């Protein structure tokens, strides 16, 4: 009985590249978020805070991206078996952003950003019959970050920026609870478990350097530190009655149905280091290439406990996770069609972070390819609009017979993303 409950808890806090959101400014995302060495609008607060030192004006930038993911699963032997096909429910995730930049002096610039660095979720169709329901049928994470930064321009060629990140996040997950039924000699669904954590705060920092050796190219380095979040939550267990009164009574005595069960856990979000170089062949054309490295290997264990039910606490082996550091390559171009009108495009290669053991229905992590296009248009002397459209294609990802939950098969994912931001300079 203990193992059935632990499936729920261990799956709750699973993170990987699939929850890492990089769409924090529409101009940047239209160029594949290759923006570390360019950092030339207020979204630099996220991509490279040193960039705001070169903006030279008061600036307000607001908007967001709408993410519409899709996914499916094809089973493999021994469980759930070949021929099994599952699909994700269609969902839409809005990812807002707001940035304010204020030059205090010719050299010192202050900025404030609000964005969502982690998010999204998975929800599978027909949860009562979904073959992965004992791992997760519905899960999501919501995070918002407030990021005040300061940038100092040492000269017209070099600047440094840094700031604090105040993040607030919460989790939600639902799964079914299986138990062996001695009366039917089969696994039987005896309940559902639903967890909702409280909003929890955490503190981190980001920093960056931007160097402009000449008018023809610039170089940037950006870093975001890891942050540890200690979550507290409530697990709500609801019983599913089978009609066998003896069996239902036995199950009711073993699981805390009808109680608010306290759950504690801590997780360390990974650090990120990125670098980029931008080229300006002409006044109309600019090109940038970025390479990022995310330290997912630091997420190798998930400490978890039930303060009121210590007998349910998982063993050290059950808290182990299987992640590796991953590399992301971003390429973006911008071309000025006419004065005040810009055409943009980009490509992203985003390597998977989870090993096959940790690829699950809650987060079918995979290597992703993104293709983006966008348009920027000045509406008047101060106001402008940026638009972007992105297609994300995930490579087919197999569990390779290594799933730590014994749920074998191949996941297929893709998504469409649409962004809009308005900027105002004054």
What's this entry about, in short?
The protein is mainly β and 426 residues long. It has 4 helices and 21 strands. The chain has helices spanning 2-12, 26-30, 44-47, 245-254, and strands spanning 59-75, 85-87, 93-103, 108-115, 121-123, 138-153, 158-181, 186-197, 200-214, 217-224, 227-239, 260-269, 272-279, 285-294, 304-305, 326-338, 341-350, 368-378, 383-394, 397-398, 409-425.
What report would you give on this structure?
- This protein has 426 residues and is mainly beta.
- The chain has one domain: Outer membrane protein transport protein (OMPP1/FadL/TodX) (Porin, Beta Barrel).
- Helices cover 7% and strands 53% of the residues.
- It contains 4 helices and 21 strands.
- The chain has helices at 2-12, 26-30, 44-47, 245-254; strands spanning 59-75, 85-87, 93-103, 108-115, 121-123, 138-153, 158-181, 186-197, 200-214, 217-224, 227-239, 260-269, 272-279, 285-294, 304-305, 326-338, 341-350, 368-378, 383-394, 397-398, 409-425.
- A 14-stranded antiparallel barrel has the order 1-3-4-6-7-9-10-13-14-16-17-18-19-21.
- Strand 13 (272-279) and strand 14 (285-294) form a beta hairpin.
- It is elongated and about 80 Å long.
- It starts with a helix and ends with a strand.
Keywords:
mainly beta; 426 residues; 21 strands; 4 helices; Porin; 7% helix
């Amino acid at each position: 009985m203990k193992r059935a409950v632990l499936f729920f808890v261990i799956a709750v806090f699973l993170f990987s590249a699939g929850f890492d959101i990089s769409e924090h400014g529409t101009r940047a995302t239209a160029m594949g978020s290759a923006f570390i060495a360019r950092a030339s609008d207020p979204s630099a607060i996220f991509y490279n805070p040193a960039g705001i030192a070169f903006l030279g004006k008061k600036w307000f930038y607001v908007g967001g991206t709408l993410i519409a993911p899709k996914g499916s699963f094809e089973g493999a032997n021994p469980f759930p078996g070949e021929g099994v096909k599952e699909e994700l429910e269609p969902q839409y995730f809005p990812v807002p952003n707001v940035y304010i930049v204020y030059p205090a002096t010719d050299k010192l610039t202050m900025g404030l950003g609000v964005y969502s660095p982690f998010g999204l979720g998975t929800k599978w169709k027909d949860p009562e019959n979904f073959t992965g329901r004992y791992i997760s049928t519905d899960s999501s994470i919501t995070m918002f970050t407030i990021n005040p930064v300061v940038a100092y321009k040492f000269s017209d060629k070099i600047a440094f920026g840094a700031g604090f990140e105040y993040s607030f996040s919460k989790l939600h997950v639902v799964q079914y609870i299986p138990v062996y039924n001695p009366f039917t000699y089969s696994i039987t669904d005896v309940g559902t478990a639903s967890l909702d954590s409280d909003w929890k705060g955490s503190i981190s920092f980001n920093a960056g350097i931007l160097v402009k050796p000449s008018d023809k190219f610039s170089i940037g380095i950006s870093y975001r530190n890891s942050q540890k979040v200690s979550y507290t939550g409530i697990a709500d267990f609801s019983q599913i009655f089978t009609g066998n009164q003896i069996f239902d009574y036995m199950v009711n005595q073993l699981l805390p149905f009808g109680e608010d069960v306290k759950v504690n856990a801590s997780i360390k979000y990974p650090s990120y280091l990125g670098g980029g170089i931008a080229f300006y062949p002409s006044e109309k054309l600019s090109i940038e290439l970025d390479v990022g490295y995310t330290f997912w290997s630091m997420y190798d264990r998930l400490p978890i406990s039930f303060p009121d039910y210590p007998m349910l606490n998982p063993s050290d082996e059950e808290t182990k996770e299987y992640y590796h550091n991953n590399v992301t390559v971003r390429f973006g171009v911008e071309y000025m069609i006419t004065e005040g009108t810009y055409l943009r495009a980009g490509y992203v290669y985003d390597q998977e972070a989870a090993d096959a053991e940790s690829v699950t229905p809650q987060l079918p992590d995979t290597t992703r390819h993104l293709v983006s296009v966008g348009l920027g248009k000045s509406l008047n002397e101060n106001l402008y609009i940026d638009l972007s459209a992105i297609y994300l294609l995930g490579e087919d990802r197999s569990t390779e017979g290594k799933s730590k939950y014994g749920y074998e098969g191949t996941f297929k994912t893709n998504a469409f993303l649409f962004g809009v931001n308005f900027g105002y300079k004054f």
